[in-house]
Prior knowledge:
The protein is of the alpha+beta class. The chain has helices spanning 28-41, 86-99, 172-175, and strands spanning 18-24, 45-51, 54-66, 71-74, 77-80, 82-83, 105-111, 118-121, 134-140, 143-149, 155-160, 164-169, 176-180, 190-196. The mean pLDDT is 93.
Amino acid sequence: MDLFSREPSANLLPRDGEVIYFGPILDASDHENHLQTLLESVPWESDELVMFGRRVTTSRKVAWYGDRPFAYKYSGSEKVALAWTSLLQDLKRRVEDLSGERFNSCLLNLYHDGSEGMGWHRDDESAIVRDSAIGSLSFGAERKFSFKHAETKEGVSLVLEKGSLLVMKGETQRHWLHALPKTKKSNEPRVNLTFRRMKE
Ligand SMILES: O=C(O)CCC(=O)C(=O)O
Ligand SMILES: [Fe+2]
């Protein structure tokens, strides 16, 4: 795996947190190979959430990996973290080296096409170490990713390129929501890995 030597961006947020975009960190053939491996070998499962008081099953699929069998809780059910595969461990190391952060778990999302996305939310569950960094690695379809300040409503958006790394850190999750908007422009799958730090 060759690293591209692109300089990370300056902080994309104007206040109250830090978001750094590193751009693509994988070359095109590694990106393609890893995307195929992830699509074929990850035990993708539906996610569940409560919307307007109703339990709904998402068509977006998820998988949850970690150093230990951490619980990932959603709307009353929970998933137990799977043991790292060698590919995920390899990618985790790359993300750690570039970001200077350490992670012990990873949530994977599979969006089959542009009709699937993720609504406004923060990654601030109590099981996550407060103000710990999140490293987000993207494969497949390039999609817009948006931030919205919870109080001022300021907005920041960017396109997450194939094989790119985005790091959210500092007080980002306290003050900013983020979302992956649905789009009619994409009919390709996208896989996203968010490396996280859970409380031990
Ligand atoms: O798919 C993405 O880029 C973001 C996913 C996300 O925000 C999350 O899993 O919490
Ligand atoms: Fe998130």
